[in-house]
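Why do we care about 3D structure at all? Because function follows from shape, and shape follows, mostly, from sequence. That is the central idea of this module. The next example makes it concrete: a single protein chain, its amino acid sequence, and then its structure expressed as tokens.
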Amino acid sequence: MFNALKYTKKFEELGFSKEQAQEQVSMVIEMFNENTATKQDFEKLHLSQQISRNDMGKMEVSLRSDMEKMETSLRSDMEKMETSLRSDMEKMETSLRSDMEKMETSLREEMKKFVTKEEFNFKLREEISRVEYQLKSLESRLTIKLGVMLAISVGLISTIQNIMK
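And the structure:
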């Protein structure tokens, strides 16, 4: 227990005035009262802790229940999403296969055209070669005939000149 009178006298002995000593003791008592816990404070704290523990227990049970519900919901959503994804993937696979088959068919047709074009080009080259050969042959024959005609013409001119002289 705090003896206020005793401490007031001590402050006065140290040179404090009566008012200063009383004020100092009042401040100490006030600080002591504000910062010191009483038995009632401890009982309130204990009761509050018990209530907090009970509340925490209830909260824990509630949180666990909420977490279990959330887990169940998430698992369900994941299963639905997986099913949806599998379905979408199957559709995409079917679509891709169809597109690939169309592309393959188109490529085969293009290849046939290419082979046909190549055959056409080959035959055209053969025909051009044959025509060139014929033209060269014709040119040779014409050259020979022109040469013969020139020789005949020169011979005729020479004969005509000889006759006219």
